[in-house]
Specification:
13 helices; 5-stranded parallel beta sheet
Amino acid sequence: MQKKIYFQSSLPRSGSTLLQNVFGQNPEFYVTPTSGVLELLYSARGQYTNSKEFIAQDNELMKNAFKGFCNQGIQGFYAGITDKPIVLDKSRGWGIHQPFLKTFIDNPKVICLVRDPRSIYSSMEKNYRKNSERSSEMLNWASGKGTTIEKRVNLWAEGPPIGLAMERLKEMIDLGIDKDILFVKYENFINHPKEVMERIYNYLEIDNHIHDFDNVEQLTQEDDAVHGILGLHDIRKKIIPLEEDYNKILGETISNNIAHTYKWFYKYFKY
């Protein structure tokens, strides 16, 4: 039986792991940590595009064959993992690569959690401080790399995880991909989880499930160090509103600079 496969492609430090584990309470769902399925498909796409064996054959025939390969490949991947009928695959790349996804899945459903960028950077800084006993590639006292909050914010802004994610989000909006994505504000999720989950179920066009937001068990495990973020990706067991403390953690000047840098974000998402 074909599985229903949905996708989550959220900003970093914006509740993506929490959302996965809330959905994990639904016995119909298999939820992933950050998945490598997109990378598998993209590797195959490179071979399909550049291999002379494929190039030499009929273009339309090979195009249809590759679509079938991708569709059945993702089905087969999860058939080998779980008997559950629904999968929620998490990868930051699904959003920007949604046009590729549409070539082999009809009307793909992609959820994207977003968050005030000042809180994202603040969360990164707090996580950095919490894991200060671990060696970090972003810190080098001899060269002065990452030795101040401002320097760390600039490093996070220049590439992954934050800079790349924000760049992809801006491109999704500019290209019109956003119209097919369900955007959810993290702030709304932690303040009104029941209403937000009902909205997501409605978008996925499946029956709602009654969730226990006071007792969220962590089913997914991953070490964010491979994504450039120190520490295990742990979640709070109970969903509660969090204090907005970016001015306290980053300082008002840096917080204001972040707000200025991402003016387009605040305008689009009406923060």
